Amino acid sequence: MFTARPFYPRFQARGLLPLFRLGAAMGAITTLVICLGLYATEATAMGLTVTPHTEACRTTASSAPPLAPMPAEANQRIPESEVVAGQQDVAWAWLGSPTRRYPHGALGSPVHAGSVHALVKSRAGGWEMIELVLPLNRVYEDRVPRIVDLDRDGSEEIVLIEADALRGASLVVLGIDHTANVPRLVVRARGPFAGSTFRWLNPVGVADFDGDGQLDLASVVTPHIGGVLQLLHYRPPTLVPFARAMDVSNHRMGALEQRLGVIVQQLGHRPTIVVPDMTRRALHALRWDAPGQWTELADLMPLPGLVERLIPMPQGACATLADGRSLQVKLSQ
Ligand SMILES: [Ca+2]
Ligand SMILES: [Ca+2]
Hints:
Elements (H helix, E strand, L loop, with lengths): L4 E2 L13 E2 L9 E2 L10 E3 L2 E6 L30 E2 L4 E10 L12 E10 L5 E7 L4 E3 L5 E3 L8 E8 L3 E10 L6 E7 L10 E7 L8 E6 L5 E9 L2 E11 L13 E3 L7 E5 L5 E9 L2 E4 L4 E2 L4 E7 L2 E6 L4 E6 L2
Parallel strand pairs: 2-22
Antiparallel strand pairs: 1-15, 3-4, 4-5, 5-26, 6-7, 7-8, 8-9, 10-12, 11-12, 12-13, 13-14, 15-16, 16-17, 17-18, 19-20, 20-21, 21-22, 21-23, 24-25, 25-26
The site of one calcium ion (CA) has 6 residues, from loops.
């Protein structure tokens, strides 16, 4: 068994649920203890517990040293974007070539990336800086390259949001091609486009959601206007959607923060996705069972404020609310 991976490995570096089978959650007793408007003690829905957290949510930094020093060129990355370190054959990856040619402010700025760059290990064992430059009708509408070995062949892939001037955003997986003398960044697989100009999507992470032994991707399509949680198989040259669920959002329009959904892996169970509903005032805990069948492990869990960020914690997540409060979210089954 492998562990579900959030997309940020080292850095920082309703009502309408027609496809859901509410499973064990139906009929569960929800206890909310709210004192004087404060979320004083504990709120419990079946399988999901939310408690105040005394500390600010923090990501756990990797203790592993970088594979190679960060190149100076990474300082030329687009504003407010991340340089991300890999663990196998991608030492670093970052977004470059800032451009305003796709003036969409989903991430708070109309400046997006016209290229992606990576320091990768060559077949000879040295480190090579490589890049992929997009055509003029495309940008990376993203701020963080996600490095993950999706097919577990020892070579890492890079997952990005690429936006087309007419068809909107799609999820794209880049890989390192070694068939030439020097390594090249190439597109390995692409998911469906969101549909039209300025339609966006935001990835959640990777895990084996259907239990076939292969890693899959999870993404929320159009998180600002009726988000749809989509699960996709990695089947180069395509990312093939195989499940969808409504009433979710993992991004606030205009926010730089893209981390608003976590994947919880529990022994003996398929991965569970904890993600806000469209209002971002409640959390879903969703596990895919079979075509057309989801289990919602908890009743929709109300929160005492708008959630702005969800980052992984053991068996759950740390949630940051818009007013700065932190909550500990735990899945108990
Ligand atoms: Ca790979
Ligand atoms: Ca799978």
